[in-house]
Amino acid sequence: MTRTALNDPRIYRNRHLEWLEFNRRVFEEARDIGNPLLERVKFLAITANNLDEFVEVRVASFLQRIEHGSRELGPDGLTAAQELEKVSAAMHVMVRDQYKCWNEELLPALAKEGIRVLPVSQLEGKAAQAAKAFFERRVAPMLTPVTVDPSHPFPHVLNKALCIAFLLRRRKSGNGKPYFGVVTVPRALPRLLRVPGLDGGIHYVALQEIVSAYAAKLYRGYDILASAPFRITRNSNLYLEEEETRSLLDAIDSQVSQRRKGDAVRLEIDANAHPEIINRLVSTFELDEGLVFPVQGPVNLQRLFHLYEETARPDLKYPQFAPRQVRVGHDADSMFEAIRRQALLLHHPYDCYDTVVNFLETAAHDPRVLSIKQTLYRTNSDSPIGHALLEAAGKKEVTVVVELKASFDEATNIRWARSFEDAGVQVFHGLVGLKTHAKLLLIVRQDPDGKVRRYAHLGTGNYNPSTARYYTDLSLLTTDETITSAVHDVFNYLTAYAEQPNYKPLLLAPRDMAKTCIALIDREARHARRGRPARIIAKMNAVIDPPIIQALYRASRAGVEIDLIVRGQCTLVPGLRGVSSRIRVRSVVGRFLEHSRIFYFQNGGKPDLYLGSADWMPRNLYERVEVLFPLKDSQHYERVCNEILASYLADTRKARILGKDGCYSRPRALRNGRGFSAQEHFMRLASGDGDFQRIPALRNQGVAYTPMTMITPPRSAPEEESSLDSSNATV
After folding, report:
1. Share of the chain above pLDDT 70, in %
2. Is 274 a catalytic residue?
3. End-to-end Cα separation, the chain, in angstroms
4. N or C: which end of the chain has fewer CB within 10 A?
5. Hey, what domains does the chain have and what are their CATH numbers?
6. Residues 203, 347, 429, 437: which is the catalytic one?
7. pLDDT digits (tens, 9 = 90+) for 582-601
8. CA 614 to CA 506: how far, in whole Å?
């Protein structure tokens, strides 16, 4: 039998189609009747928001590559034009299914609960009066109707703005000629208006319906022949020549302001729109016809977030979850002393993120703290993290590495960077050509015994207390000298490009992370060939890097058992005979967004365990500053392996298994009953009602994955086994 070459395009999935498959898994949560009804509405809104960002960045990139004549092939052998064709077709199916779910599943279910989204034509009495009054008092004064003619050019339509197009006929001296009208609806207006409902019901009417219904008041002297709401999505990529830019902050600020005016990429328009309206818009915006999406309902399903937020029906939402409060000391001295005695591992959102915030806030006010250094990739606009750094600025040395190019958070980060600079913080923006994605906080303190020590926080998630409530992540608070010294070296790398031969025990991208990960995988293959215990378990957001995938294929061939828990894109094909028969891939999508990265290597029974900020993607491994850090404490190891990873591998409710055909399916064990949800299990543990010792019993329910209880804590390994042979690692 001819052995399959590991660069054969047939054993790679397309990364963009895989992203759409991930979005479909989120969409399945909108259709899952086991989820509370308003949560299903929220999941549908999330899929729409996800698709917006995909179009703004990924689809826009296809169009640019095609325009530039790119003939480069991806690992799957597709050109940009072929990718666009396949992606466009998949998007049309997705959009069709989204609106089918809204119209045929969610709207009827909401109506049964007394929640209705009605057209203006169905409003009566006080509801009709409320809609009319809202238009006259709030909407009409903010609208600028435009009739397109030689003296009134087509208005510039902002990115993702709600617009209404009209076909008009002038009543006098118009010669029967149709005119084209456009009204842009300001974002300041709510997209759903609540109106008085009968019998105590909760009734809404869409803003696009109100504007269309009363448009005659805007176009007096015209007959309205047809109207249609539409939305244009524009290219939102930033284009910077960093080495030629005097001020990166000013350059990005300028680019962000231009984002709303980028080239048009997609048109969403009411499915009943008059053909002349569609043709006019396609021509005006020079759109590919494959990127025109007729929709049966609101042109922006993302706005259903408003329905979720404004509808006070807690019985139709998830029960409130109170995370476990983890208090570290009662003042600064006791907090730092506690961390010196025992490093602290937190699992968010099940362990409250307030512990991390309190760590920084306490340091900011503690006179014994000499300096604070922190990276910021994403944080919220009114972040206690940012305020703590501002508070500390006048009292100690504060250095912040702010990533200005964090997609769609650029404006927020620019505001924080300027606030920090005004307060006297030393602000840096990382290295030219690299995003700073590592999650690091380093505090230098002179303790009561007179010694100067370093304390560090390392995490898998952003310093954003808002998203920390629904992103799953891990945090480590430690004073381990080998780790804190390496973190210090990473900050020197970020602020001065001061390079060290290595950053052990950390793995640092783009310096050595890819090379070391491949070497760790290859080491498992050597163990397997020698008959030693060999297993890899990796949890992350994406697996798409070809050199990493080839290493995993080699390991599978050598006999290594490999479990990948991948939330999003996985271009590796599992279960292929002679290539990946020992590789299993699962994706967990549930109430919380899976965001933690965990990497376990069994190493012949002397395992290594890393956490960090990086996925196995080219952008993380080669285009960003990322950090993976080891877990050394046996209790932390026990928690991550035998509680966290074991639970994900045992999940039968929210997990989907990737088949070799590229399709995801639910585990068979779900058919035997309610099944097991890792996220629900973690919530029970946080409330004190759970026991991770019950996880192995799930084998009796037909779970295909062996729990982690047979894996022993790490201990010192002989030099021969712990050394990494990277001679065959091609990066």
Report:
1. 88
2. no
3. 29
4. N
5. 10-242+265-310 (3.30.1840.10), 332-495 (3.30.870.10), 507-722 (3.30.870.10)
6. 437
7. 999 999 999 999 999 999 99
8. 12
